[in-house]
Every structure is written in C-alpha cells, then in structure tokens.
Design brief:
Layout: H1 10-27, H2 40-43, E1 48-53, E2 56-62, H3 66-72, H4 83-89, H5 112-121, H6 123-133, H7 155-172, H8 174-194, H9 205-224, H10 228-245, H11 252-281, H12 287-315, H13 318-334, H14 350-355, H15 357-370, H16 386-393, H17 402-427, H18 440-449, H19 458-464, E3 487-497, H20 500-504, E4 511-522, E5 527-532, H21 538-546, E6 553-560, E7 563-564, H22 567-570, E8 574-577, H23 589-600, H24 607-620, H25 641-653, E9 659-663, H26 671-685, E10 690-694, H27 700-704, E11 708-713, E12 717-723, H28 729-737
Parallel strand pairs: 5-10, 5-11, 8-9, 9-10
Antiparallel strand pairs: 1-2, 3-4, 3-6, 6-7, 11-12
Helix pairs in contact: 7-11, 8-9, 8-11, 9-12, 9-15, 9-16, 10-12, 10-13, 11-12, 11-17, 12-13, 12-15, 12-17, 15-16, 15-17, 23-24, 23-25, 25-26
Transmembrane segments: 175-196, 208-235, 256-281, 287-308, 320-340, 401-425
Family: Belongs to the ABC transporter superfamily. ABCG family. PDR (TC 3.A.1.205) subfamily.
Main location: membrane
Amino acid sequence: MDEISTGLDSATTYQIIKYLRDSTHALDGTTIISLLQPAPETYELFDDVILISEGQIVYQGPREYAADFFAAMGFRCPERKNVADFLQEVLSKKDQQQYWCQYDYPYQFVSVTKFAEAFKTFVIGKRLHDDLDRPYNRKHNHPAALSTSNYGVKRLEILKSSFQWQRLLMKRNSFIYVFKFIQLLLVALITMTVFFRTTMHHDSVDDGIIYLGALYFAIVMILFNGFTEVSMLVAKLPVLYKHRDLHFYPPWAYTLPSWLLSIPTSLIESGMWTLVTYYVVGYDPQFTRFLGQFLLLFFLHQTSLALFRVMASLGRNMIVANTFGSFALLVVMILGGFIITKESIPVWWIWGYWISPMMYAQNAISVNEFHGHSWSKPFADQNITLGEAVLTGYGLFKEKYWFWIGVGALLGYTIVLNALFTLFLTILNPIGNMQAVVSKDAIRNKESRRSDRVALELRSYLHSNSLNGLKLKEQKGMVLPFQPLSMCFKNINYYVDVPEELKKQGIAEDRLQLLVDVTGAFRPGVLTALVGVSGAGKTTLMDVLAGRKTGGLIEGSISISGYPKNQETFTRISGYCEQNDVHSPCLTVIESLLYSACLRLPSHVNDDTQRAFVEEVMELVELNPLSGALVGLPGVNGLSTEQRKRLTIAAELVANPSIVFMDEPTSGLDARSAAIVMRTVRNIVNTGRTIVCTIHQPSIDIFESFDELLFMKRGGQLIYAGPLGSKSRNLVEFFHSSRGA
C-alpha cells in the first residue's frame, strides 16, 4: 500500500493501520505499507521497518532495533523526537550532524553507502543475511505463488481488450479522421477540376504523360495522408512503453489491432479518391480498371500507414520522428520512377529505386491505366499500342503482370513494416532521460561549494521567533512594500442546503450546519495552524474566511484590521495556496512566477520592478537554484513534489498579499520535505505577513514551529484557539485542565 495516509488526519491513519495490523496478525498475511510523516503512535504499530535511501536498504528488521542501529553508529534520537522523522533526517547531509552523540570524536558525514555496509555487520543484518542464505523449502510453495506467464490473462483476452481500447481511442480522435477525410475530399475535388476530362485526350504520348502526372499526384496524396500517424503514435508512445514494461500486454497486442482497425480508414480514403476523380478525370472507363486503381490505392495507403508508424517508433521523439518521416517520404518520392526516371537514376542509387514502394505503385497503377481500351490504338508504325508507348517512353514497365507485382509488393511492404513496428516497440526504449531539473550530482556539487550555508532547523525558529519577544524583520529594501493586516472573525456559522437524495434517506432538516459559532483572529507575523480530524471543517472555515464559498448561508462578522471585510478589495490583499499544485509543465520556475506577477500585480508596476520582486520572492522561498528548471509533469519529470509546493506558495506571494491561506502545504510530503516547506512558510511569516495553514499529521518539530493554534472537532466546533507556548505547554495545560483528559 503506497502512501495511504495522504490527506488523512493522525487519528484516522492510526485506526486504519491498527486494523491492518490486527487483520495481518489474525489472517497470517503479509502487508507492506509506505507512509509519509507517520505519527509516533502509528509508527509503533509496525512490526518491521525497511529504510531505503538512494536506492539502498539502510535498515531492514524489527522496528524497536532501528534506533539502536543508528545509536551504534554514533547517532542518537533526541527526546520528544519522532523516530520515523529521525530515521529520515539522519540520512540527510544537512540534518545528520545534529544527531551526533559521540562527542569524544569529531563528526564526519556518514554516507548512505557506509550505513548500508555497516548494517550488514549489525546483528539484525547478520540474521537477515543468514535467513536469505538458507534455502526455502519448496514443499511449502503455493501453486499461485509463482507466475508462469508474463501476463495476467490469456492472449485472446488481451487481444479483445486491445481491440476495445483501440476503438475507443479512434472514437476519441474521430475529429482527426474526419478532418483527414474532408481534406482528402477537397484535394480530390481540386484535382478533378485541374485534370478535367474535357481537356484530357488520348491521342498522343504527350496526352499520356499528362495522365501519368495525374496518377502520380494521386499516389502522392494517398502516401502523404498517412503522415499524421507520426504525431499520433509519438503522443501514445509513453503510455505504450509504460504498459509494455508493466506487462499489461505484449507489443503485438497493440500493433495488430491498430493495423486491422486501419483497414476501414484505408478503404474510405482510397474509395473516396477513386470515386471522385476516376471518371471525371477521364481514366479508362472499364469497371475492372476502376477496381484496379482502387485496389492499388488501398494497399498504398496501408503501406503508408505502416511506414510512418515505423518512423515514429524508431524516432520516439516528435522532432526526430518527423525528421525520419520527412526523409523517408522524400526518398520514396524521388526514387519512385516519376520525378527521376529509371534510366536517369545513378548506378549507386538504383537499389533505392528497387526498394521504393512508390516505384511499385507507380508502375502498377500506370499499367492498369495504359493497358485499357482508351489507349489501345496503334502507335505510329510500330507494333505497340499508344499506352505501351507512353509506358516505354517514360521508363516504366509495360508488361501487364506488373499490376499484380505492384499489388503483391505493397502487401508485402505492409506486412514487413508492421512487423518492424512490432519489433521496434519490443526492443526500443524511450529516448534519453526525461528529467528536466538539474541532476542530483550537480546539486550536490553546488551544496558542497556552499558549505558555509547550513540548514536552518525548525527548532531554532521556535526560540528566535516565538511569541515571547517576537520581532518582525524590518522590511528594508523590499521592492514592493505591503501593509501588515490582521483578520478577526466572530460567531461564524455556515449552512448548506441538504440534497434531495439525503432527504429521501430520512434527514428532516433543510439545512446542514458545517461551522458552529467559530471565533478567532489571525495576526501579522504569527503563524497559525488550523487542525482537526477529517470532516471537522478546517478547509470549510478557511474557504469561508477567504470568500471562496459561493453557495450556502454564512453568518457572523469578519473584519480586516478593524474594518468590515469587503470581498472585492480583500482578494487584492490575500492569497490562497490550494492543496493541488497546478502549474504549466512547459514553463520554467521563473517564467511561471513572472507570468503570475504580470497578471496579478497592479498595472503601474513596470517590468523591471516585477522581475526584481519575483527574484526577491524566489529567494524567500529558496527557489533561486531552480529558477531555470522546467516545472514538468507531476510524477513524470521536472520539479519534485516539495519543490512544486514551494512554487505554489511563490505564485501566490508574487501578488504581494498581506494575508495568505494555505490548504495542507505538507500533504503528500515526507518529514524532510515537509520541514523544508515549513521553513519556507516561516520565512514568509518573518516578513510580517499573516499566514494560516491547515495541516494533517504534523511531526513534533513542524507542529511546534507554529505560533498559534485553532483546534476544531467534528461538526465544525472550535475547541481551542490561542498560542501554543514553549513545547506546546499552553495547549497541554488546556487539555490537562479538562475533565477526563
């Protein structure tokens, strides 16, 4: 189970993990779970722990001995420190030194590789090694334990599923196919008027050459119409490679349906061209000649589709594939026997003539036309017809059997090219590394050169920025100054209409109350946490205060620095960082922020001031080293999750707000990444802004980095509102004073 706690509060996560532990013990099962920022009580539910860093297993064994292993290495977990957070941070170069406990020896950074080697000599590591060396008794094997096939279902089922998937893709891309049909129809209509039969004659060799030009243009258009396969296939390749590597289906299960489902397309396009142009241009009126031209164009279109699929699967990149496709199109056209006749092709290029599909198509379609009745009149005094004279004069083959040679050659090309398409999908991998950000090695080199800059720990913030003597940093040299503002709210109630579906289930009320008499305040330079179980109304309260709720009934008063809140002006001095990070993947970090600043800053701010302010914000959220990095796609390339979160915060800060709302800024992050984000948030608070965050499953360090707390319970009721105090003393005393706590 991968990160099942994301978006859940600590209590809910604890209950889920406890249930999984009990069921695993009762059913004698095996459960593996990866978690981000597990609470201490949740961490203690596990039996074993696997600690992985940089692709190496640092520790694998009983949970209770994990801290002992690092203690033997000279690193001790402090009191009131979550062991799970300690295990992550002790492997970090920036955080490792604070846990060094062997003061008699100078501290030296211990790399992940050294930890992994030391674990092999640790008692748990030795025991694990001995267990792995002991052969497993095959008598205990279950028949379903070993896979006998790479794929989960039979080949026929895979083929059926692939056919359904391909049909669905064709339906979704129907606009492209309709556009191709319309485009081909328009070109056919133009061709029909250019080579109109009233101006076309069958009296001389020159007339025959004009007909050869019309036939050549037809096969060029059919050949070129398959070029769209390049862009369509390149767009699908990432998904195809992913499915192939995960053994969803073999490559032939994609190529075979795509080939068979392209047959109707080829029938429509070749039939449309032949129907529109054949009799209007004035080709030989015999119906068998009409069918022959249709058959030739059909197989040529199939060859074209297969050829450009091969180019796309070989190029694997839009630019490279388009280059390959254009080059292939150019070669087969030039060496097809019309632009340059066979006799004019140099000896060292004659092999290209014989392997060009265009040559077989040109000869076959020409033989089909010029052996017709319209061209059967004798030519001069020679013992040949006019049609044969045209073919011979242009260097084409005149034998009738060349029609079937052309059909067979195009069919063979279709089969061979589709086989190559399958082969390339099987053996080739995506081109290059898709990572758009600076490599880790480059980052490490930069960090080593900046050795004088050490990580600023959250605990130091607690001492230097606590409410007891909090001094806001002077806003000296700020490019765009702002006015620090406070927000007060009193007796906030929020109601929503009950849906008809719930009323049918027995709910009698017309309105459902989500917030109940919530009162509090947010102050400049004070970092406020909004916490509570899932469904307590944290995000709802923040949305109501930010003016993002467009429905329902809101009661109570909200004031900004003593003045009643006006939503039209409030949006200019506030920012809202959503939980989901939505950014353009094609922009760099600085481009994203400049674009946001251009849209949201007042019009009187010039470009130089905007850029200076953006650079100031980037320094504030520590994005300067990544200014030129592409944002990329989440989970695919570009910025990491933690870097995207900081970019989301920066995108709101470039609007120069006085009040910023943040919805779960640490959700989906591990303890190390969450600490980096919260360090950024603290930097923002120190400028004098008012910051409010909803937060789930905070570690002790992250929780104590907040100055004040609003604690809500399920039903939208406020339990506690006030300062945390040193080591959360005020909050603990409040609960101790409550009966039964």
